[in-house]
Amino acid sequence: MTGNILIKPSVQQKFDSVMQSGRILFFSAPCGFGKTALANALLCGHRTLRLCADAPDFTLRTLPENWDVLLIDDFQLLQEQETAQALCELIRANPTRRFVFLSRGVPPSYLTAFQYTGLMTTLEPDDLLFDREDIRGFFAARKAAVTESEINGILKESIGYPLGVAVTARCMSGGKPFAPEIVAQAYREVFNYFEDAIYRRFDLPVRHFLLDLAPFERFDLEMARMVSGDPRTGNLLDWLLHNTTMLRYDDVRHFHFWPQFRAFLLWEMEKECSEEKRRAVFSRGALYYELKEDYAHALECYTKSGDHAKISELLIRNSEQHPGMGHYSEMEKYYRALPESEILASPSLMQGMSMLCALAMDYEGSERWYGALKNFADCRKKQDPAARQARSRLAWLDISLPQRGVEGLIKTIPAVFRLLTDKEITLPSFSVTSTLPSIMNGGKDFSEWSKKDDLLYKTLRIPVEAVLGRDGVGLADCAIAESKFEKGEDVTGRMLSLLPQLNEIRNRGTPDMEFAVSGLLARSQLANGQAMDARRTIEVLRECFAERGLTRFLPNMDAMLCRIDMHTGNLDAADAWYREKAPREPTHLNVMRRYRYLTQAMVEIMQNRPDAALLTLSPMEPYIQNCARIIDGIHLNVLTAITLHRKRDERWRERLTAALDAAAEYSFIRTVSVYGTAVLPLLVALDWDGDKKWYKQLMAAVRMQAAFYPHFLEPRLAPGEELTPTELQILHLLCADKSNAEIARIMDVKLPTVKTHVSHILDKLDVKRRAEARTAAKKLHLVPEDL
């Protein structure tokens, strides 16, 4: 801290490095980041020549001699090539002098050579944003009291934007608490500043362009051109990228606005644009998303544009083109908002509602819409195209509805095959896997079929592949290989014959089947102790799918990579997945995410948080029972048993017994053995009286996995290192910066007792100081991240 200016240690370090061995320090950040004040504080004590590129008399030709550092503010305004050349010559001719440039834009290309040779250091917005410690220090320097919860609120609202923090601090002067009215006042002041200092300085075409794009969190050149209708879109984007830091790259093709500036643009849009203008912008955005078949975003934009007819049309088209996936969770609110009369007039919408209700575990509602669709078909002549469409949708639902199980499919599929052959129906596309890396446990659970997999492979392969069309390419060979794998067989030979079919699957089949085959390969590699090969298999497929825009598969691929990380002991990576990508929604079950829920529970077990794991697992039980999900049920029972065992709850025996009974009935081995060392002590302690031959095979497979991955699901704190309830309470207070005396008062214990507890806590966390205890506690998930 210099005066009232906060200097972050990382910024001070970069400044010192430039002063010692560099040449240029380039500040690249939007206005309001305190670049000028910060630079002046850093340069205190240095002979500094200060110039402003916006000054009428700015020149580099005649400079005085008595300076060590040249500071140029508003550097983004240096546009002339002659000035740029003169600056580069000045830098090269003065190796003992230093240069500090303050810019709202990015470093210009003529400085690239200095950056590549390590002579220029760039400070970007992320380097200047405040964190909790910075905000605490900022208020302390002004002798203003602020609580930890207020710091968290200020950080959340300001995202660490220095001007936002400074304005908030001024609004709170006089002891005012951080409250919604303070937030509103701070936003108004910051937005007024943006309006005067940035927005009004842009030309009108740039302003209009910014307002057109403000409603969209992410966009590419094509979308920007379609939404704005401006033929100069490419030039405008290029100008913004080079002359401001408000527009940022997501990747090579996609952009987003800096969040605070986007919030300002939306505020400005409300003021400047008429309702008709705003609706037109959303309508153009919706058209872009529609053409990209991003129906969830298209529906959101059509809703904001007030175009109800397009919403209904889009839902019908989506259910006709993508009934297997349907994007039902993203579109549920739009389906629910449709008038019932409109749904009853469309076979596609009735099919969509039946599947949507089923996925929401409203099976009564699902069957009601199925009945409405059947009544629609029965009330029309057989030759009526609408009746034919309804019969096709009914056949699709007979195969696809999760509550129907698979028992009747042996009769249903040949019957549907005959209808297809006779051209009485045409089936919409399916999603056999529901984007999961499995056929046996994808859209349906085919455990029952696995009992006679060889027979069904011979008799049903042709009709199944015909009924499923593109989804059937490669299905039969992958399904029987997976069935054998679950039973503990070595499927290396089957995989060698299956993998050459991947090109055919890519050309004639679906990405669902491509993921199923690659997923089975990765699982077999993991089972054989080849974890790095398994990771590479999924990483390569993920890169390929991301390039092809198949983003719906990526969440389950990431969950699969997380499972591999847990097997190999990469706990930090598993923690990162949990923090950034785990669903964590116990009150709203989405059955399409069940693979991620199970992965989430595994991470919580690894984090030594059994109660959190049970909270994640328990909502899945009704779905598993109602839809006869045998494999999911085995996984759920094994994970619940492991969790209860760690809580020393004897009900683990009942759960593990249920898992073993089900696995033995279907001869499944891998479904249990994948938990290796985590389930081994339970199996040793359990007196299970089932099939001894199968159990012997299971134990051999479990011991093999335990040998390959001896730390899988191992808790980060061993039982002897676990904190007692009292120690956990004191740890929370310690992390809230309470002194030992304050802790003693709150806990109503003597001060020496607190000191003893703190000493035990530090020992168990293997740290020396209280500050280190907070970091360790967050890493072990013993305290909240924001504490």
UniProtKB/TrEMBL annotation:
<dbReference type="InterPro" id="IPR000792">
    <property type="entry name" value="Tscrpt_reg_LuxR_C"/>
</dbReference>
<dbReference type="InterPro" id="IPR016032">
    <property type="entry name" value="Sig_transdc_resp-reg_C-effctor"/>
</dbReference>
<dbReference type="GO" id="GO:0006355">
    <property type="term" value="P:regulation of DNA-templated transcription"/>
</dbReference>
<keyword id="KW-0804">Transcription</keyword>
<feature type="domain" description="HTH luxR-type">
    <location>
        <begin position="716"/>
        <end position="781"/>
    </location>
</feature>
<dbReference type="InterPro" id="IPR036388">
    <property type="entry name" value="WH-like_DNA-bd_sf"/>
</dbReference>
<dbReference type="InterPro" id="IPR041617">
    <property type="entry name" value="TPR_MalT"/>
</dbReference>
<dbReference type="InterPro" id="IPR059106">
    <property type="entry name" value="WHD_MalT"/>
</dbReference>
<keyword id="KW-0238">DNA-binding</keyword>
<protein>
    <submittedName>
        <fullName>LuxR family transcriptional regulator, maltose regulon positive regulatory protein</fullName>
    </submittedName>
</protein>
<dbReference type="InterPro" id="IPR011990">
    <property type="entry name" value="TPR-like_helical_dom_sf"/>
</dbReference>
<dbReference type="Pfam" id="PF00196">
    <property type="entry name" value="GerE"/>
</dbReference>
<dbReference type="GO" id="GO:0003677">
    <property type="term" value="F:DNA binding"/>
</dbReference>
<dbReference type="Pfam" id="PF25873">
    <property type="entry name" value="WHD_MalT"/>
</dbReference>
<dbReference type="InterPro" id="IPR027417">
    <property type="entry name" value="P-loop_NTPase"/>
</dbReference>
<dbReference type="Pfam" id="PF17874">
    <property type="entry name" value="TPR_MalT"/>
</dbReference>
<keyword id="KW-0805">Transcription regulation</keyword>
